[in-house]
Every structure is written in C-alpha cells, then in structure tokens.
Design a protein that fits this description.
Blueprint: E1 5-8, E2 11-15, H1 20-31, E3 36-39, H2 50-67, E4 78-84, E5 112-115, H3 135-143, E6 148-150, H4 164-179, E7 185-187, H5 193-202, E8 209-213, H6 215-219, H7 222-226, H8 243-255, E9 260-262, H9 271-274, H10 289-297, H11 302-319, E10 328-334, E11 341-345, E12 370-374, E13 387-390
Parallel strand pairs: 2-3, 3-4, 4-5, 5-6, 6-7, 7-8, 8-9
Antiparallel strand pairs: 1-10, 10-13, 11-12
Helix pairs in contact: 1-2, 5-8
The structure holds zinc ion (ZN).
Zinc ion binds at residues 14, 16, 40, 265, 267, 354.
C-alpha cells in the first residue's frame, strides 16, 4: 500500500454522538479525524425540532472547546444537525425562526431530516408507521432543499432480518424517488449488492439519490458475525451480509462514483449492553474509521487513492452542496498497536438504539462504576508489526 498517505480531510455523513458522559468520551475521536459530521438525532429523548437540535449542537461545541480548544479559537469540526422525523413533524420543526427558511443550509439550525420506520415492538411512538403521512413534509423538504436521510430497512418482526433492506427498496425507496424526484435522499449504511446496484443505476446528474457505506460493512460479512461463535461487537443494523454483498460495497467505494460516500454509523454502546442476553446494535468505529476504510480498499496506485479520497472526502460534500475541505490528514505506519477499548463513566440511560429498541437490556453496573466500549479496529495481518494510523498531533 502507498504510504505515507495524504488525504483531504474526510466528512462523516452518519454519526451517533450520544449525550452526557458518553458524548464527552466519544466526541474527540470523531473531531480529530473529520471536518464535518451529520449527527444522528436518536438520543434517549430524540431530537425532534430545531430548538432541541440547537441545544444539542451547543452541548457538542461546548465539549469540543473544553477538551480541544480552551482558548477562543473556533472549532474546525462542524456538527450538521438532524431531527428525528415523526408523524407529528411539521415544516416549522426544521426552523428556529422563519428567516431560516431562506438561509443557506449550513446556517440553518437543522441540516437534514432522519427517517426511521417504527418497529412493531417497543418505542413505536418514535418512528414512522405510515409513510404517506409524511408526504406533505417531504414536499416541503424537496422545495427547501432539506436532505432526507433514511435508515433503509423494513422494520417489522415478520420480515426476515436479512431481507429488510432489499424490501425497503421495492416497497418504499423506489416509490419515494418517483414521487419526489428533486428530494435529496441518502440511503444510509447500505449493506447489499442490490442496494449498490439500485443506487448506481438510479443516480443521475444532478444527483438526488446517494448512499452511505460504513467502514464495518466494508470489512465484515455475516460469517464474521455468526460463523465462528456469536460476536456481539460485530452486531449492527442493517446486519452485515454475504461476502458477495461486502465485495459489492468495496467495489462501490473504490469506484469513485459520486453517489457513494462515507458515513461511519459509529455507535457506541457499553460492553454490558453489547454482551447481553439481548444486546444492542451498533459498532463504535470512530477512533479508526479511516484506517478501516484503507484496510478494506487497499489502494495501491495514486489513481486508486484518488477514488478513495472521493469516497471519504469529496462525494458527500458535493452531494450536499458543501465546499470541499481544504485541510488534509496524513496516514503513516506506526509500531503502536490499535487501541481496542475505551473506558468511560457508566453511560447515561441507554439511548434509543440504532434503530430498534432492546426489549430487556441486562442491568447496567453501579452508577459510580466504569464501563468499557469496544473499539472496532482494522484486522491485523499475522505478520504485521506496524499499523496504519492517522498522524494526530
Ligand atoms: Zn445509525
């Protein structure tokens, strides 16, 4: 592999930062790597309007300044806020003031809307059960250029969990694109060859449909989750799929096609919530997200590196009409091993999981105990003495 590597600073178009102590613990890991990140709204109390989004953003910026920018220097890390769409969301939910309707997207309190389908089990009040009830809202988003990010899976317990993404395409995504051709839609964390093919075929210029791909879906297939013992730290939603699906995702990320870009879906959960009788979905990959992408895509030539840079740092910005980041990061080989866990104070109450609730999580430890979050790292080759890591300083 080429090394050292200089890369335009990446953006992360799908990130779970949580709240409270967990937010403080995980935020620096994203802030030191990414320039901008689309912050998911599924906190224990979901972010459903501009007022909540503004408060959450202020919390994030306060923590950034506390840990990284003690002076008045402005933060180079920009959280782009989303709201959780429900059947009660109105166009006004996106704005603090009416004047925001005509503001440039980066200056609005809310950058995008996030759609989760309700599940048939717990917490159904948070998600959407009847998509047509949101059509008036989608008309507004289309007219005012507000992006729609979708967790693209059918969410009901009678549908096979491995088929939920493909059925989402047929039942919801295709009709949605037909009905709202100018609505900017991100099909998030795609996990199947069908999704890759669909997005690639339907992308057009100017492109209104795109897909994010996570580092873990680029590296794992379902054997890594289930094939040799159950590995709860590889459990995420959508589930990782067959090897042919993983290869299709790698091909999409390597292709440089404008409709594919990085969204890490980094989602921290304490070890006790992962290694439980009914464990949480979500993989915490923020510390080594870019290293994982490199491990999966293995660029050998400058042209391949160029395509990888499109995937990590340019396509997402272009899709959202954002300027390209001018800063760069450098990856070098280090003898230091990857850090495999992070100790944090016991997290606050379990956030709304990603995306479906856990019926009965095991009890958390005492309130003054520490909790550990397992870090997703690039796979080590047997003869590796060095690891590729971002030069941070
Ligand atoms: Zn997510």
């Amino acid at each position: 592999m080429l090394c050292p590597i200089s890369l335009r600073k990446p953006d992360d178009f799908h990130l779970h930062l949580r709240d409270g102590k967990l937010l403080e613990a995980v935020l620096p890991h994203s802030a030191q790597t990414f320039a901008r990140t689309l912050v998911m709204p599924n906190l224990a109390t979901p972010i459903v309007n501009a007022r909540q989004a503004r408060t959450y953003k202020e919390n994030i910026l306060r923590i950034l300044h506390k840990f990284r920018y003690p002076s008045n220097a402005s933060s180079p890390f920009h959280p782009l806020m989303t709201i959780f769409l429900t059947e009660e969301t109105t166009p006004q939910s996106f704005y603090l003031e009416d004047s925001e309707r005509t503001s440039p997207p980066l200056e609005r309190s809310v950058f995008a809307g996030k759609l989760y389908f309700a599940t048939a089990t717990t917490n159904t009040k948070h998600g959407v059960q009847h998509l047509p009830s949101l059509f008036p809202l989608f008309e507004h988003m289309e007219k005012h250029n507000i992006p729609l990010s979708i967790h693209g899976e059918i969410a009901d317990e009678t549908t096979d969990v491995f088929d939920r993404e493909s059925l989402f395409i047929d039942q919801h995504l295709e009709p949605l694109i037909e009905r709202f051709p100018e609505l900017r839609i991100t099909f998030e964390h795609i996990s199947t060859k069908e999704a890759v093919d669909f997005v690639s075929e339907r992308a057009r210029s100017p492109n209104k449909l795109a897909a994010t791909i996570t580092p873990h879906h680029l590296l794992l297939n379902r054997n890594d989750l289930l094939g040799c013992g159950l590995r709860p730290h590889h459990y995420c939603l959508p589930l990782v799929k067959r090897e042919r699906d993983r290869l299709a995702l790698v091909g999409a990320a390597r292709s440089g096609e404008r409709c594919f870009f990085l969204g890490t879906d980094s989602a921290p959960h304490g070890r006790s919530h992962k290694q439980a009788s009914c464990g949480c979905a979500g993989i915490f990959n923020a510390p080594y997200a870019i290293e994982c992408v490199f491990a999966a895509l293995q660029p050998d030539k400058p042209a391949e590196l160029g395509c990888l840079e499109l995937f990590t740092s340019e396509n997402g910005a272009a899709f959202h009409d954002l300027p390209l980041n001018e800063e760069r990061i450098t990856l070098v080989k280090k003898t230091a091993p990857y850090r495999t866990s992070l100790s944090v104070p016991v997290p606050d109450p379990v956030p709304v999981p990603d995306p479906v609730p856990v019926p009965d999580p095991d009890p958390v430890p005492d309130a003054d105990a520490e909790e550990e979050i397992v870090v997703f790292t690039p796979p080590n080759q047997p003869d590796d003495t060095e690891s590729l890591q971002i030069l941070r300083g």
